Each structure stands twice: as structure tokens, then as C-alpha cells.
């Protein structure tokens, strides 16, 4: 079989340093391919064994910062349910059900935890900060315990304010406020975003490791793509690679051919053929912090139009990166990308063919956090903020291209977690500094 340039590059190696991969020829038998894939999989080593979790001292500093903001805003207490915010402040990793588990952070004093009696040992397993855990039996009201904590911390007063994290369910808010009728409920975003939006060096380190896992997994999957593969096979490869490399809570999306023109895909079955666009959007967690990387490959020799669109998207990424400077409103990043795309004949605005979604989103413990690179967003960029940079171009009925790499803001401007690739023939990219 005559091998083309793309196949030579694919099977000769990848740009990601240290990626030891077993190439699979396009004309190997199924058994040979399985054996080669197994050999390649065995060379994927866990990259996360030596990572350091967020320290107790850092969590205490987070609570102190939240309490400082609460004092400035004259807010008496903050109520959290299980999720990223609860984990952020306390380390508790739990789920939500009809049985309330909650954290109360008062303006002053020790935090309090409320949970079902039979769940206390499990909740304490991940609790990193605080010792005041109060339990309720099945016939009792958890809201009474929340109210007791508020009373004991001397934060219940006429006209006082209780802040609820934005994902707290209505029945929880209602249950708490019915026992504190002289107080008022308010939104907690100023507190939670005031803490979570600005990442520490420890958080940046964990996010960098998560991105390393995902990027190396991409290199592995790129080397394993074969004619006739469907989306589920490719997603399974990526999920396995990220898991073996040490990622947790992995997620993967693979869109081929015409389906790639839909940012989040369709239900239509697609397989890889010669010249197929393969658009992937994948990520994982390391110690609770996420990666989010998109790559667009062409299986075989890319045609002229595929090259043009791919390079337009890469230029869009560059413009977004260069625009994202300290003190710039986040919305300007999106506007500058759309100005370039419109000059190339796409759009205008969100119209197709063109860019039908925002240029990027905040990221950290959650894949999508505030704030976004979206029109009208006036929040000024500051050090510690982290964003995805993903200005795709979508051509309905043909194909789509998206490249996504995340950035973090420093006092000197943006830095890449992963540096985007510069060519369809070498489409993985490298780790940032």
C-alpha cells in the first residue's frame, strides 16, 4: 500500500513529547489491530500519582476570604449543597438526594455541616475543614439543624441576609427561610465567584495535570484511528486512555463528517472514511479540577476547504489569546474573533456558516464556570481567571472545525495550559509553560 504524508506522520510519531505509541496500519487484520492497540495501551502510564491535593490550609484561607466578602456585603451566612462549591470550601464530595446534606458558612466562626445520621461516616471521609457535623434522623427536619447553627453563630437577626449558592434547590431555600422569617434570602454569586473565579497556583497545577492527561490521550487516539471506526469506538479509546493516564470522571465526544457541523453532534451514526473530519471534545478531572480540549483531525489527505477552515479556526484561537489581556472586558475577546470570521465571509454574529456559540467559558472545578468569552460580558480579565478558547466554524451539511485549548491569566497576560497545533498534519499540540 502506498502511504501518504498524513499516514507517514501518523505512524511515524506524534509531536507530544514522551508519547510511546504503537502504530496500527490501515490494512492490518482485526486481530493484529487489537494486539497492537493492547500493546500501545500498556505503555500509557499514570501521570497523576504524585499530584498534591488542595491543602487544608488553602481551604481555610478560602473560607476566610468568603467570610471577609460576607462581612463587606453584610451577609450573615452562606448555604451550600453538595457540588463543586461545597467541595471547594470543605472537601466534602457528596451527591444530592431528597435527604439534605448542607454546609453553613457563617460570617464569623466555625462552619457547620448537616447530614443524615446514617451518612455521617461517609461525609466525614472527605471533610477536610471543620468538626461541627450535625445529624438528623429520618423523622426529623434538617432545616431545624441549619437554623440551630445560624442561631448559635449569632447571625439570625431581623433584616439579616442568608446567601444561597446558585445551584441550591428551591425546597432547601424554602425550608431554611421558613424557620428564619425575619431574614431575607440573597444570591451568593458575589461570594462564591469572588473566591472560585481566581485560581491559586495549586489549582493551576492540578488543571495543568488534567490537561496533560487529555492531551496525551489525544496523541494515543490519533495514532489508533482506522477506517470504518464509529463514534463509540473512538470515544471508548479516548475514555480508556484518559483513565489509564490517571484522569477521573472522563468525558468524550466524537463527531464525524457531516455531524461535526453540529457543535454537540446529532444522533446519526457516522463512521470514519477516507477524508473524514473527526472532531473530538474531551476532558477529565485530576483532584477535582478539569481539562477541556477539542481537536479536529482529517483522516487521510485533507482537501483545500478543510485546510482553509482549520487554519481560519486556528487564527481565531490566536486572536482570542492575543486579545485576552489583563483589564480587557471578557466580551471583547468574542467580538474580535467574530470580526475576523466575518471578514472571512462567515456569520455575521451567530449565523451559519460561522461560529454559532460563544468563544469560550470559564473553567475550574466545573467544566463550565463564570465568566464567559461572550458578547456583552463586561467583567474585566484578572490574574487567576481560567478560560477555554474554542472559536469553531461550522458549515451545515458539510463539516465543522473546532480547536479548543484552555488558558489561565497571569499578571503579564494569558498563558496556555496546552498550546494549540499549527498544522493538520501534526494536529495534537504541546503542553504550555
Kindly describe this structure.
The protein has 433 residues and is of the alpha+beta class. The chain has two domains: 5-43 and 199-431, Creatinase/methionine aminopeptidase superfamily (Creatine Amidinohydrolase, Alpha-Beta Complex); 56-196, Creatinase/prolidase N-terminal domain (Creatine Amidinohydrolase, Chain A, domain 1). Helices cover 35% and strands 20% of the residues. The chain contains twelve helices and 19 strands. Strands 4-3-2-1-5-6 form a six-stranded mixed beta sheet, sandwiched between helices. Strands 7, 8, 9 and 10 form a four-stranded antiparallel beta sheet that branches. A three-stranded antiparallel beta sheet has the order 13-16-17. Strand 2 (102-106) and strand 3 form a beta hairpin. Helix 3 packs antiparallel against helix 8 (189-196), helix 9 crosses helix 10 (231-244) and helix 11 (304-323) runs antiparallel to helix 12. It is elongated. Residues 1-36 have low confidence and may be disordered.
- Distance from N terminus to C terminus (CA atoms, Å) equals 40 Å
Q: Which CATH class of the largest domain is shown? A: Alpha Beta
What assembly state would you assign to the polypeptide chains in this entry?
single chain
Give the count of helical stretches.
12
The fraction of residues assigned to DSSP E strands is: 15-25%
Compute the number of strand runs: 19
Amino acid at each position: 500500500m502506498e502511504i501518504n504524508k498524513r499516514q507517514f506522520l501518523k505512524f511515524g510519531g506524534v509531536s507530544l513529547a514522551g508519547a510511546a505509541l504503537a502504530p496500527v496500519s490501515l490494512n492490518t487484520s482485526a486481530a493484529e489491530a487489537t494486539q497492537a492497540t493492547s500493546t500501545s495501551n500498556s505503555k500509557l502510564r499514570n501521570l497523576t500519582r504524585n499530584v498534591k491535593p488542595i491543602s487544608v490550609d488553602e481551604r481555610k484561607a478560602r473560607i476566610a476570604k468568603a467570610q471577609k466578602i460576607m462581612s463587606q456585603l453584610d451577609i450573615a451566612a452562606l448555604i451550600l449543597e453538595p457540588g463543586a462549591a461545597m467541595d471547594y470550601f470543605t472537601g466534602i464530595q457528596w451527591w444530592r438526594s431528597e435527604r439534605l446534606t448542607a454546609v453553613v458558612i457563617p460570617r464569623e466562626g466555625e462552619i457547620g455541616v448537616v447530614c443524615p445520621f446514617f451518612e455521617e461516616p461517609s461525609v466525614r471521609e472527605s471533610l477536610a475543614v471543620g468538626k461541627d457535623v450535625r445529624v438528623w434522623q429520618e423523622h426529623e427536619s434538617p432545616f431545624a439543624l441549619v437554623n440551630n447553627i445560624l442561631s448559635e453563630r449569632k447571625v439570625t437577626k431581623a433584616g439579616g441576609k442568608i446567601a444561597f449558592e446558585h445551584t441550591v434547590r428551591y425546597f432547601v431555600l424554602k425550608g431554611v427561610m421558613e424557620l428564619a422569617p425575619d431574614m431575607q434570602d440573597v444570591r451568593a454569586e458575589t461570594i462564591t465567584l469572588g473566591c472560585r473565579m481566581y485560581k491559586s497556583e495549586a489549582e493551576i497545577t492540578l488543571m495543568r495535570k488534567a490537561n496533560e492527561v487529555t492531551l496525551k490521550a489525544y496523541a494515543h487516539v490519533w495514532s489508533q484511528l482506522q477506517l470504518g471506526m464509529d463514534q463509540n469506538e473512538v470515544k471508548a479509546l479516548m475514555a480508556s486512555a484518559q483513565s489509564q493516564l490517571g484522569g477521573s470522571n472522563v468525558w468524550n465526544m466524537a463527531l464525524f463528517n457531516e455531524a461535526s457541523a453540529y457543535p454537540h453532534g446529532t444522533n446519526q451514526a457516522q463512521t470514519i472514511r477516507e477524508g473524514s473530519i473527526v472532531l473530538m471534545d474531551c476532558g477529565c478531572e485530576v483532584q477535582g479540577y478539569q481539562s477541556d480540549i477539542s481537536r479536529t483531525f482529517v483522516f487521510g489527505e485533507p482537501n483545500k476547504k478543510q485546510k482553509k477552515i482549520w487554519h481560519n479556526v486556528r487564527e481565531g484561537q490566536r486572536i482570542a489569546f492575543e486579545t485576552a489581556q489583563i483589564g480587557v472586558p471578557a466580551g471583547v475577546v468574542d467580538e474580535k474573533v467574530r470580526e475576523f470570521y466575518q471578514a472571512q465571509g462567515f456569520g455575521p454574529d451567530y449565523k451559519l456558516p460561522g461560529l454559532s456559540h460563544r468563544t469560550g467559558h470559564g473553567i475550574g472545578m466545573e467544566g463550565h464556570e463564570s465568566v464567559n468569552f461572550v458578547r456583552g460580558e463586561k467583567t474585566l480579565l484578572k490574574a487567576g481567571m481560567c478560560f477555554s478558547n474554542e472559536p469553531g466554524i461550522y458549515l451545515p451539511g458539510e463539516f465543522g472545525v473546532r480547536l479548543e485549548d484552555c488558558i489561565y491569566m497571569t499578571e503579564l497576560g494569558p498563558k496556555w495550559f496546552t498550546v494549540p497545533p499549527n498544522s493538520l498534519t501534526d494536529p495534537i499540540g504541546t503542553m504550555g509553560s
